[in-house]
Amino acid sequence: MRITTHSKCDPINPTIIGLFENEKPDSGRLGKSLAELIQKHQKQKSFSGKSNESVSTHLSKGEKLQKVILFGLGEENKLHETSTRNFGAKMIRASADFQQKEINISIPPALQNHLQALAEGLIMGNYDPALYKTDEEAKKKGEKKTNTINLICTDWNTDQRSRLEKGKSVGETVNYIRTLVNSAPDQLNTEQLVREIKLTAKENQMKVTDFDKKKLEKMKMGGILAVNRGSAEPAHMMVIEYNPAPISDNRKPKTENPLPIVLVGKGIIFDTGGISLKPSTHLSDMQLDMAGAAVVLGVFKLLKQFDIKRRVVGIIPITDNAIGNTAYRPSEIVTTYSGKTVEILNTDAEGRMILSDALYYGATQYKPEYMIDFATLTGACMVALGFRTAGLFGNDEELLDKLNSSGKNTDEGLCVMPITDADEKGIEGQLADLANIAHDHAYAGASRAAAFLKNFITDTKWAHIDIAGTAFTKNPKDYETTMATGFGVRMMIDFFEKLPFSVNE
Ligand code: BES
Ligand code: ZN
Ligand code: ZN
Q: Has residue 503 got a pLDDT over 60?
């Protein structure tokens, strides 16, 4: 999708005009006939500008027929990032009626305060999840999809254009990771996810290291290897590194912290549960179990464009959790990369097994300033918080506050959850150091999982974000479709943008 900026409306294209309640149309920007058309509707009370009101009309005869949609933006003083993102999505959806590749969208200047959110909404709202449909109707729909938006507002400056571009990239990245998460496990297997990570690294000139099964064996990454045993494909752990360009202008760094920030993402291609096989009702969407990996990859696609002045390292362990005669079994004892032993009580608690190695590697190899992991880790988190709020766990209040406020900024809900002494006690092993689920495992499952992870982070400031409930949806928001939401990328970019600079070059 192209979004170009203009200060006048070209009357050839079909046009969506965003207007606040009772806003006087700007004839300078819209031209005389469009302004009169709006006034006519306002006078007739067929359009008032109430939030999300949408009226299809056209310019009167005698002129070239121009399809027009008047779109209500509500009260100007109620406008914020989230409403703007929603408006963007609704406008692009309304434009489907035009069946035109190129359209105009006119916006009042107040929307220019939220151009990133607007572009995010426009791009995310344009996402089509029909990845594998082959019928004619789907093809036709694709052919008539809007691919150019002429965005019209009175003036544009460089800063505004850059925000628009950033929003566009965020939207495209969210759509990209939605596709990764929606992809069927036979279409996006371990090898293909590895390829996507390598491609992202190449496109952004980032260093990428591929720890294949042989290397994982050498390093004694027992957690990942145990989960991988039943899988037809060998496991990988990918490490991707972003090093910022030197600070070239005279902005003064506020802190001097050369330590990187490590992001870790759970990359289970498909979670059958293993020998502790999931019931069939729980199996159907389990391709989503690499959503944490997708979030991390998405963030790496954006770091350069957002000119983030931090070293960032992404660690992504990838494997299937499959069933078969070589699969790891309940009651086995696994020695993790950290040296800690784990008794397996349930092979469906596999996420914490692969994360244990990735987190310990991140903590010891990089001694990061912060380490943050994303994982579709527990159904229990979904039971506790539902589908719109991710569980936020960790050991550093300042880090949790930062993440929480970024989530608020980007309409991605988080709720701080506890890791109590009882949770830590709950996952102590009988024979080994740890058990991969608590012996009385019916309660506080999300906290127990977090307590398990806590054993592998040494003294790092750490946050764990359980996205089991938020990675997929059956009740999409304006800018979502059913299935993958892309939850997490926007919040992380906001988090990085708001961190003080550090000197890393
Ligand atoms: N991938 C699942 C968690 C999950 C469930 C994600 C539903 C998204 C939607 C995870 O590996 C898992 O199976 N967790 C178990 C843990 C249990 C065995 C302690 C669970 O939540 O049931
Ligand atoms: Zn599982
Ligand atoms: Zn899982």
A: no
